Amino acid sequence: MIADTLLVVNKKARKGQSDLCAGIDVLRQAGWRLREEYPAQPNEIPELIQRYGADMERIIIGGGDGTLNRAAEALIQCKRPVGLIPLGTANDLARTLSLRADIVPACVSLINGKLHEIDLGNVNGKHFFNVANIGVGVKVTQKISKQGKQRWGVLAYLRSLYLALKTRHPFELTLRVDGKEERVRSIHVAVGNGRHYGGGVTIMSDARIDTNSCICPV
Description:
This protein has 218 residues and is of the alpha/beta class. The protein is 33% helix and 25% strand.
């Protein structure tokens, strides 16, 4: 049987294998022929996509926001429709896309849903989904442990935010938006097109990921 769908699962994502088998059964019952890849390390994901993706009709990523951003360049190169099974802690892009957090309903949505083009951002030559940030947000991510994600889920971000704010260092930057320039001082800057960021926090309820525009909370 020749596979038509590449499924790449980040085993280190928070939800991991929970209910994943049931979701895979749903995809198979719909007639999708899966090539399943479970890399030992997340940094192997782009290579697997580059190796197998071009021969597939579609690519499904099982993971969270970090997994998607790690795979972004490889997904662009393959030029195949991409589906998402939200297995991460925050799943902010999935929230913006109104994807169900439960694995089986998410897989049903993959089967019954319609293709929709979305915009990716680009920072220093690297593409990203949903949001890119500097400052406190980066420190929050660095301070979250795998064990904390597994145990506390989104609440792990609150503890990490507290620790990050204790060691914050303001910085100066120049914002150039729509031909206007402004010098600001901040501890955090994010640029993105998603509605949610930082574990489900709604930063702009009417944000769209298909309008060729970004928002920039400072």
